[in-house]
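Quiz preparation item.
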């Protein structure tokens, strides 16, 4: 078995789309980044990198590379899924915590799960998702950023 952990945080900006787990969530702000800013897919990609002892996403997809400006984070995750395939590993489960003051994400759990389930080719009951606030404290509590933790287990 192999376990990996990933974390990411992005700043919320007006005029950006909010993309989480590969789906668009209607909101007045979106996550700013060199890519589409999908913190969930970034944390997931880094968790896979950790489990499989592969370079992190900042190494393989540096934010100084103009060729990857505004790319979908699905392309980033796709690279890490190719490592999973190469090493003949199988997802046991993934678990994640999204930390956001707003928007409220509970209504989006099923859609995010479905998106990840299709992308990772794993059953939805192998995906855990939770959203937490920071009780209105700090950067996230002031609605200036969204962060995400992800743990993956492979067998
Ligand atoms: Mg990121």
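Solution:
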């Amino acid at each position: 078995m192999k376990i990996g952990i990933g974390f990411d945080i992005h700043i919320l900006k007006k005029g950006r789309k909010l993309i989480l787990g590969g789906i668009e969530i209607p909101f007045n702000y979106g996550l700013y980044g060199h890519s589409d800013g999908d913190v969930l897919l970034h944390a997931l990609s880094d968790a896979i990198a950790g489990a499989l002892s592969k370079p992190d996403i900042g190494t393989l997809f540096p934010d100084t590379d103009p060729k990857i400006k505004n790319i979908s984070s699905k392309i980033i995750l796709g690279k890490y899924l190719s490592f999973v395939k190469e090493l003949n590993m199988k997802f046991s489960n993934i678990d994640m915590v999204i930390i956001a003051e707003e928007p409220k994400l509970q209504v989006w759990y099923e859609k995010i799960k479905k998106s990840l389930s299709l992308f990772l080719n794993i059953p939805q009951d192998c995906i855990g998702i939770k959203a937490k606030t920071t009780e209105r404290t700090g950067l996230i509590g002031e609605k200036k950023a969204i962060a995400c933790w992800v743990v993956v287990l492979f067998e």
